[in-house]
């Protein structure tokens, strides 16, 4: 084969044949086996990434112990960047022992139903499946080496098999909870246990045993036991929790999530998401390495109070002020003092801070007030503007309800960050919009610095600027604006969505600005 003045790349050898992708970069020609070609020539490209559709997804995934699936869109820039890395990882993992297959689903064509089923809302989304069931989202890096390393680790046995008491005791020296299954070798509950271990492998430590010696010594059989770390043992609760049901992995997982941290867990930046709200967190200088006695002095006081509220829906935790400096600053606490701080985070996103000095009695009173709905949520807020008569109303945390949730007004609100370039570009356009509709009595154009004020949870802000429309008759379900960012487009949107129709004085059609809906 002779190739002249043409770009070409040998991709790989597949099924014993070379596969080429050839592009005519210049004016030259390509001579293959004596034939002169001046047209683009492309041989079939061999890929180790399995392409799945709605029709083939189940049958392909069902038979695999583990499989990584990429959900993508052909036009997505991040997907294009990932493609060669993903392909290289697939080739390397194909020859792993055992092989780990990588697959992909086009969410714009034959895989729309599958993408919808698994809640794919952005591209690329990577998910791990085990034996046909969704296991977890991929959390590794997106280069080939990172994908290979992460997936090899995922393919390792999740639960360590324990054969002797010495092994078990060594395992229980862990500074986090250890979840141990006690089963006969072919016990059905063991299969359920291993399923849960796979699902929670990133967050918890698992082990299992079929040793008669170990089961006899511990007194457990056909059971799953959560052993708490020794430094968290206390007189206020058992040092282990036992699950003896024969239910499915769903109930085993639920049991772990509800009991693994005990009555008062140790929250860290790594496990914070495991504490479901509402959660009451007591922040102080937590240090189990250098000051375990001092740390448990405060934890035992929290435990004492927590025992009195066991019948209430509330999780309790202690946490180091060092790990949560930013959060504590946001709720108005100092982070460099010796004070013990308490914050309740409710499931609706509200925060309640205890302002009295910590003591058992004050802590108990604070919780009682919370359960009696006698506390006012803490709202991070800038100072209320002394004057606010401009075309764009300035909203702060303390005035959000008054301005944005005004039942007599339709409100278009921009959430911005002072450092955001797109926000700065939008500012004159947004001000012009405010001027244009200022005489429409039931429409308000507003803005809020989302870095200096609390944003209510009904307004999801993940980038800047983010714009929402809050109609007067449906404040609980604001609409996220996704149109172009020029004055005419904003006006057209408001005329379409406004509760009460309105018209503006005709001043001739303006040419639309090229400002688009670019978002960070």
UniProtKB/TrEMBL annotation:
<keyword id="KW-0732">Signal</keyword>
<dbReference type="InterPro" id="IPR036249">
    <property type="entry name" value="Thioredoxin-like_sf"/>
</dbReference>
<dbReference type="InterPro" id="IPR017937">
    <property type="entry name" value="Thioredoxin_CS"/>
</dbReference>
<dbReference type="InterPro" id="IPR005792">
    <property type="entry name" value="Prot_disulphide_isomerase"/>
</dbReference>
<dbReference type="InterPro" id="IPR005788">
    <property type="entry name" value="PDI_thioredoxin-like_dom"/>
</dbReference>
<keyword id="KW-1015">Disulfide bond</keyword>
<dbReference type="GO" id="GO:0003756">
    <property type="term" value="F:protein disulfide isomerase activity"/>
</dbReference>
<comment type="similarity">
    <text>Belongs to the protein disulfide isomerase family.</text>
</comment>
<feature type="disulfide bond" description="Redox-active">
    <location>
        <begin position="420"/>
        <end position="423"/>
    </location>
</feature>
<dbReference type="GO" id="GO:0034976">
    <property type="term" value="P:response to endoplasmic reticulum stress"/>
</dbReference>
<dbReference type="GO" id="GO:0005788">
    <property type="term" value="C:endoplasmic reticulum lumen"/>
</dbReference>
<feature type="domain" description="Thioredoxin">
    <location>
        <begin position="370"/>
        <end position="499"/>
    </location>
</feature>
<keyword id="KW-0677">Repeat</keyword>
<keyword id="KW-0413">Isomerase</keyword>
<keyword id="KW-0256">Endoplasmic reticulum</keyword>
<dbReference type="Pfam" id="PF13848">
    <property type="entry name" value="Thioredoxin_6"/>
</dbReference>
<dbReference type="InterPro" id="IPR013766">
    <property type="entry name" value="Thioredoxin_domain"/>
</dbReference>
<keyword id="KW-0676">Redox-active center</keyword>
<dbReference type="GO" id="GO:0006457">
    <property type="term" value="P:protein folding"/>
</dbReference>
<feature type="disulfide bond" description="Redox-active">
    <location>
        <begin position="76"/>
        <end position="79"/>
    </location>
</feature>
<dbReference type="Pfam" id="PF00085">
    <property type="entry name" value="Thioredoxin"/>
</dbReference>
<feature type="domain" description="Thioredoxin">
    <location>
        <begin position="39"/>
        <end position="156"/>
    </location>
</feature>
<protein>
    <recommendedName>
        <fullName>Protein disulfide-isomerase</fullName>
        <ecNumber>5.3.4.1</ecNumber>
    </recommendedName>
</protein>
């Amino acid at each position: 084969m002779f190739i002249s003045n043409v770009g070409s790349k040998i991709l790989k050898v597949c099924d014993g044949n070379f596969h080429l992708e050839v592009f005519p970069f210049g004016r030259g020609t390509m001579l293959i086996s004596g034939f002169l070609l001046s047209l683009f020539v492309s041989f079939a490209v061999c890929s180790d990434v399995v392409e799945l559709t709605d029709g083939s997804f189940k049958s392909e995934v069902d038979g695999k112990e583990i499989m990584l699936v990429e959900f993508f869109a052909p036009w997505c820039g991040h997907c294009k960047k990932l493609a060669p890395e993903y392909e290289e990882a697939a080739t390397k993992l194909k020859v792993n022992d055992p092989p780990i297959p990588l697959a992909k689903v086009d969410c714009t064509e034959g895989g729309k139903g599958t993408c919808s089923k698994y809640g794919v809302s952005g591209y690329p989304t990577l998910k791990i499946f085990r034996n046909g069931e969704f296991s977890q989202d991929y959390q590794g890096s997106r280069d080939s080496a990172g994908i290979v390393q992460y997936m090899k680790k995922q393919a390792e046995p999740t639960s360590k098999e324990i054969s002797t008491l010495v092994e078990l005791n060594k395992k229980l020296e862990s500074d986090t909870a250890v979840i141990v299954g006690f089963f006969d070798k072919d016990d059905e509950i063991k299969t359920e246990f291993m399923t849960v271990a796979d699902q929670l492998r990133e967050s918890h430590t698992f082990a299992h045993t079929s040793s008669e010696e170990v089961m006899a010594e511990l007194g457990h059989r056909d059971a799953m036991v959560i052993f708490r770390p020794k430094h968290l043992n206390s007189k206020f609760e058992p040092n282990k929790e036992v699950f003896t049901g024969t239910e499915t992995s769903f109930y085993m997982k639920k049991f772990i999530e509800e009991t693994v941290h005990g009555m008062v867990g140790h929250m860290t930046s790594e496990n914070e998401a495991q504490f479901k709200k509402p959660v009451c967190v007591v922040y102080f200088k937590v240090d189990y390495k250098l000051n375990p006695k001092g740390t448990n002095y405060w934890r035992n006081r929290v435990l004492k109070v927590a025992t009195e509220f066991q019948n209430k829906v509330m999780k309790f935790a202690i946490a180091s002020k060092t790990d949560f400096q930013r959060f504590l600053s946001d709720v108005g606490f100092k982070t460099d003092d010796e004070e013990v701080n308490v914050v309740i985070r409710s499931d609706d996103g509200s925060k309640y801070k205890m302002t009295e000095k910590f003591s058992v009695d004050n802590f108990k009173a604070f919780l009682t007030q919370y359960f009696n709905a006698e506390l006012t949520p803490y709202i991070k807020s800038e100072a209320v503007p002394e004057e606010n008569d401009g075309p764009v109303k300035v909203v702060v945390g303390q005035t959000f309800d008054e301005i944005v949730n005004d039942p007599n007004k339709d409100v278009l609100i921009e959430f911005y960050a002072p450092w955001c370039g797109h926000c700065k570009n939008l500012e004159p356009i947004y001000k012009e919009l405010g001027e244009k509709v200022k005489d429409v009595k039931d429409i308000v154009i507003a803005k809020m610095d989302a870095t200096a004020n609390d944003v209510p949870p009904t307004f999801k802000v993940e980038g800047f600027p983010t714009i929402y429309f809050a109609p007067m008759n449906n404040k609980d379900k604001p609409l996220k604006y996704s149109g172009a960012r020029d004055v005419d487009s904003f006006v057209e949107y408001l005329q379409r969505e406004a509760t009460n129709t309105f018209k503006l004085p005709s001043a001739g059609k303006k040419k639309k600005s090229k400002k688009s809906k670019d978002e960070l």
